[in-house]
Write a structure and sequence with these properties.
By secondary structure, the chain is of the alpha+beta class. The protein has helices at residues 5-18, 60-70, 83-91, 173-191, 217-220, 231-235, 261-264, 277-280, 283-289, and strands spanning 44-54, 74-80, 96-100, 108-114, 118-125, 139-145, 148-156, 197-202, 226-228, 252-257, 270-273, 296-300.
Length: 304
């Protein structure tokens, strides 16, 4: 145990305490197929969703209905294997448009956004020459919603690992995820210092872990600058709240910068895992035809 471990444990405890008023984990009725409805007219609702090698084995008709039912302003997707199939899907969903990046030929990152409320100012990938920490370069969507500018950074970190950071192996999975966090922190601090930034995606690791092998310390050790909106889920994981229930793991995250703290503290703002399998009436059906990940969403009530 390192001398700093109590610091991170205390930090996590404090995060859980201060989040109680602003970040409620909701558990809709598991038998209610409408429970995946997430967005409202007056809030900024953003979702991250790993679609598990889309469109391989995907029930496209159900997925189209589910995306529409979420009613989110923006959905950030991971594991898009077929560009044309994804764009065709988006074209069939009323009011939505899509962006897919070209940084990789498979396991692409992508977005869908509601054209009625969101204006896309730009979309681009970053850190493309850093394949060690970023096998899939982060993908930025610069948007305007309700006359405010937001920067979304979609990610899909390196998978696997053994809960051990091998300092002597630069290709160790935990080493690569830790370096990815460090580089993202540096990019945000130097390039987007005053922007409302939301980092989200399948980050393939858990945020409420001991400091010895916690890859997210670049963010966790700067509570004045960053906050994991889904930290309460990570601190009290249950089968019905985590994003990867097959392993009782919460590995899909949403991080906000301090420019969004006050908005996220407003009543009505929260982050939760969305029980998307309710639409399919069973986890087995959902996981075999849509994804092995649940979506995770953040609702932000803009401060007036």
């Amino acid at each position: 145990m390192t001398k700093r471990k109590p610091v991170i444990i205390i930090l996590m405890t404090l995060l859980a305490l201060v989040s109680c008023g602003k970040n409620t984990v909701l558990n809709p009725d598991d038998n209610d197929p409408t429970a995946i409805s997430f967005g409202t007219l007056n809030t900024l609702d953003i979702v991250t969703w790993n679609l598990k090698t889309f469109p391989e084995g995907t029930d496209l008709a159900s997925l189209k209905q589910m995306i529409s039912a979420l009613n989110a302003e923006v959905i950030a997707f991971q594991e898009i294997m077929d560009y044309n199939a994804f764009m065709d899907l988006a074209a069939e969903i009323p009011y939505y448009s899509a962006c897919v990046y070209s940084a990789t030929d498979s396991y692409r990152l992508a977005y869908m956004y509601d054209t009625r409320s969101v204006t896309v100012n730009n979309q681009y990938s970053i850190l493309e020459n850093d394949s060690n920490p970023f096998p899939r370069p982060p993908y930025i969507l610069d948007i305007t919603w309700n006359n405010s500018n937001y920067i979304l950074i979609n990610n899909h970190f390196k998978a696997y690992g053994d809960n051990y950071i091998d300092e002597n192996n630069s290709w160790d999975e935990e080493m690569r995820r830790r370096l990815a966090c460090q580089k993202l922190d540096n990019y945000i601090s130097t390039t987007l210092p005053d922007k409302k930034v939301i980092v989200l995606g399948d980050l393939n690791d858990q945020i409420a872990e001991p400091e010895d092998y916690n890859v997210f310390l670049s963010f966790l050790n700067k509570p004045e600058e960053y906050y994991f909106a889904d930290m309460p889920i990570a601190l009290s994981p249950t089968y019905s709240t985590v994003s990867y229930p097959s392993s009782l793991s919460h590995i899909d995250h949403i991080l906000i910068t301090n420019e969004l703290f006050s908005d996220f503290e407003n009543g009505g703002s929260y982050c939760r895992t969305i029980l998307a399998e309710n639409w399919m009436l069973s986890w087995n059906t959902y996981s075999s035809t849509i994804s092995d990940h649940r979506p995770v969403g953040i609702r932000i009530s803009k401060k007036q």
